[in-house]
Each structure stands twice: as structure tokens, then as C-alpha cells.
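Go through this one:
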Amino acid sequence: MKKSLIAVALLAGSAFVGVANAADGTINFTGKVTADACTVTPGTGTQTVSLGSVSSTALAAVGNSAAPTKFDVTLASCPAAATSATVKFDGPADTKDSRLLKLTTATGVATGVGIGLYEQDASTLIPVGSSSASKTLSSTANTTFSFVAKYVATAAVTAGSANAVSDFTVIYN
């Protein structure tokens, strides 16, 4: 009798397992893959942007930034069908400020600092995983997206190497 009661209890309990996994909503992903794309110029497709050496005193308070350095991504040979684009930067996000790039982990790495990527005005932050401002493309001339990278304090800064890596994707509108 006890075994029958346990079996019935287990069977009845398993009927409610599906309820715990019920869907609360639906997400539809949409997009388009295009054969019409520009070419990223060789000098800007893979590059190293040197932010140099900065004193930790320049990053004394959270939010302070230092070593603004301009860099470009240039698109060439854009087809007429590609009328505008944005640039999206990806990479590991800083643990204290997810809008910034996390420094590459290694022995002797600086702490309390991330790398911010900004629009050409050097004040509009482009959060990691977000797209830059849109730019009209030309089918007859190169189109250059100009950006600024800066060190940004996220906590008390300790000295060390301060490198980061970001991939970028051109998104056509």
C-alpha cells in the first residue's frame, strides 16, 4: 500500500513539472544578410591604438578619463545599395562599468580602469555591444568613421599594463 501511495504521489507531482517551465513571452529575431557590403580598408580593419602611459593620478576619481586617442574605421568600394551604416564594438565588458571594455587579464594588469570608446566628439560614449551613430555611405569615395578611445577610472586605480581588445562589425541600414 505504501509503495502504491508513493508511486501515485510521484506521478501526480510530475504532472506539475511542465507548468514550472511555461513560457512567459516570445522574442522574434529579425534581420537581413546582404551581399552588398563595403570593404574595410586594410589599415583600419586590424589596427593597434596606442593609449600610451598614463599616471594613475590622472584617473584619481571614478569617471575620470585620460589619454584620448583618435582612431578611424574607413569603408571603401561601397555599393550603391548600401546607403548608411553604423559600427558596433564588441568585447568583454568591464565588471564595474559594463559600457567600457575590460582590460585584458594577465599578470601585472592595472585595476580600476576600463577603456571607453567614444564618437568623434570624444564625449558621446559608445557602450560595448552598441552601435555608433549612423553615417551616410558614398559609392564614389571612402567613408571614414572617426572614434576616440580613452582610459576611464571605474574604481581606485592601481598601476599595471592596460590593454584591451575589441572586435567591430559594420552594420548596414
About this structure: The first strand starts at residue 39 and ends at 40. Confidence is low (pLDDT under 50) at residues 1-5. The two ends are 69 Å apart (CA to CA).
